[in-house]
Design a protein that fits this description.
61% of the residues lie in helices and 5% in strands. By secondary structure, it is mainly alpha-helical. α8 links the parallel β3 (197-198) and β4. α11 (292-315) runs antiparallel to α12. Bound molecules: arginine.
Length: 462
């Protein structure tokens, strides 16, 4: 791969080329070629600005801008020959530009450095990923809303400690995830707003003596403004960390949901049937249908947490401004972004395709004395009992049902009055799971009316 001994970009003070091992540890072209489009966009904006400020001639800038497009198309069509000796995407592009347009290529690097260049490229790349994450999360929210709307009044057990707690609605459970992914969306949007300042023109670290126009390049690249401090601009990777932090929280939500899908699709639960499109079979057990996509989402998110920690470790000991350590930012972020997008798309596909088993959900909703709280609440309402006393009476009735191997609605009125004489027939009205969920009309509660209100609010918001 090595074409030259001493580097054609910075070899002036060097008598010899690098050792092969030095080249291997130093080069980032193996991965940072993923930022080729951003690098060329940044250079084209810089070239236009150099001409507008009179730093280079219009014809030189025009040659650079045209030549950069040629380089881009060579890269996009796989014709470009990347060189390890040229270290990174910035020098590979510039060297090829030199081959294509000759002398004007050497003027492109006026008033900038690879330090502001890489910060700019990487920011543009991360910004695209944030936009992709936002659309991915929105698509998933839409799939959840469709599930919630269809099953707004289907009952299922609500759990605490994974023990049956109170009946809830399927719609309510789906909408819990809508809230979680809604916060993820706003975290990505928030990070995008804060990151959107251009490092370009900060040069190596101190700014430049050329009369550059950083506002012009910032605007051309879709930034809100140039970053205000050149030292900070070249040494800041907060934008990547904020992306990874928001991605980690989003991934944690994906993993919790994946875990529920694994449990729910088991033969013991049968709450959902995942589509064949998002399941696999077993090579030995013909009856098996495995929730592999959910399991892989659950596993892959560890890489995103890892990337977040790894980049924090890279950054935590660095004095200002740029250090080569920062080259280790990219692979982590690339991998995290790839896996986040894949997990979001797989989850969206699973949610779109899955069918809830209404009968199993309802049967499970009534088991495990899930309406015990409704009974206690009835005692408070109908008999004006203090809640603590009502809790005790209900507990006695639960113990009675448990010893008989039946559920609360199966006890007779005589059984009930043997524990508290004032209980009447009316109590059976609250012991059904549908009555239970319908009664929970407090704001944010599980009743179908409240769920449908939230579905409408989210549809409006999207
Ligand atoms: N490949 C380098 C990186 O990814 C570009 C910046 C190099 N700057 C320097 N001063 N050596 O960080």
């Amino acid at each position: 791969m090595t074409k030259d001994t001493s580097n054609q970009m910075w070899g002036g003070r060097f008598a010899a080329g690098p050792d092969a091992i030095m080249e291997a540890i130093n080069a980032s072209i193996g991965f940072d070629q993923r930022m080729a489009a951003q690098d060329i966009a940044g250079s084209r904006a810089h070239a236009a600005m150099l001409a507008a400020t009179g730093i280079v001639t219009d014809s030189d800038a025009e040659a650079m801008r045209e030549g950069l497009l040629t380089v881009l198309s060579e890269i996009e069509t796989g014709k470009f020959e990347f060189s390890t000796a040229l270290e990174d995407i910035h020098m590979n592009v510039e060297a090829r530009l030199k081959e294509i347009i000759g002398e004007p290529a050497g003027r492109l690097h006026t008033g900038r450095s690879r330090n502001d260049q890489v910060a700019t490229d990487f920011k543009l790349w991360v910004r695209d990923q944030i936009d992709a994450a936002i659309s991915g999360v929105e698509a998933l929210i839409r799939a959840l809303l469709a599930q919630a709307e269809a099953g707004a009044d289907w009952v299922m057990p609500g759990f605490t400690h994974l023990q049956t707690a109170q009946p809830v609605t399927w719609g309510h459970h789906m909408m819990a995830y809508v809230e979680m992914f809604g916060r993820d969306k706003s975290r990505f949007e928030d990070a995008r707003k804060r990151m959107n300042e251009s490092p370009l023109g900060a040069a190596a670290l101190a700014g430049t003596s050329f009369p550059i126009d950083r506002h012009m390049t910032a605007e051309a690249l879709g930034f809100d403004r140039p970053a205000a401090n050149s030292l900070d601009a070249v040494s800041d990777r907060d934008f990547a960390l904020e992306f990874l932090a928001a991605a980690s929280i989003c991934a944690m939500h994906l993993s919790r949901f994946a875990e529920e899908l694994v449990i729910w699709s088991s033969a013991q639960f049968r709450f959902v049937t995942l589509s064949d499109r998002f399941s696999t079979g077993s090579s030995i057990m013909p009856q098996k249908k495995n929730p592999d996509a959910a399991e892989l989402i659950r596993a892959k998110i560890g890489r995103i947490f890892g990337a977040n920690t790894a980049l924090l470790m890279v950054m935590k000991g660095l004095p200002l401004a740029y250090s080569k350590d920062m080259q280790e930012d990219k692979e982590q972020v690339f991998d995290a972004a790839d896996n986040l997008m894949l997990a979001l798309a797989a989850m969206e596909g699973m949610v779109k395709d899955m069918s809830a088993n209404r009968e199993s959900l309802e049967a499970a909703a009534g088991s495990g004395f899930s309406t015990a709280t409704d009974l206690a609440d009835w005692l408070v309402r109908a008999l004006n009992m203090p809640f603590r006393d009502a809790h005790h009476v209900t507990g006695t009735l639960v113990a009675m049902a448990e010893s008989r191997g039946c559920d609360l609605p199966d006890l007779s009125l005589e059984d009930m009055t043997s524990v508290h004489e004032a209980i009447t027939e009316d109590v059976f009205g609250v012991l059904g799971v549908h009555n239970s969920v319908a009664s929970r009309t407090s704001y944010g509660g599980t009743s179908p009316v409240r769920v449908l209100e939230q579905v409408a609010r989210w549809k409006e918001a999207l």
